[in-house]
Amino acid sequence: MCNLETEGTKFGCGHYQITRQLRKIDCGNRYCRHSIKHPQICPGCACQIFLGPDKSETITSIDHGHCNQCVPCLALRIALFSINLTPSVLGHARHLY
Asked: Is residue 11 domain-shared with residue 52, that is, in the same domain?
C-alpha cells in the first residue's frame, strides 16, 4: 500500500486536512494501483485502490475552529439542544452528544 507525505491544516476538532501532497512513497507491490509496479493492463482489476496512512503530516497552519466535516454535526447538535432534545429524549441517538 503506497503512502503520501503531506502538508496540511490542523483543526481545533482534531482533524488534519491535506492542503498539499509532497510526494508518494511507492510500496512496490504489483497489486497496488498506485504503485509503479502495477501493470498498465490489469484485466478484471481487483487490486488495492486505497492509499495507506500518510507517512508524514507536516502541519503548516492551525485553525482553532472545526473542519468542514465537523461543522454540520456541530450545527445539528446546536439545533437539537435549541429545541430541547436531550440524549434521554433521543434514546439511540446518544452518539450525537
From this structure: yes
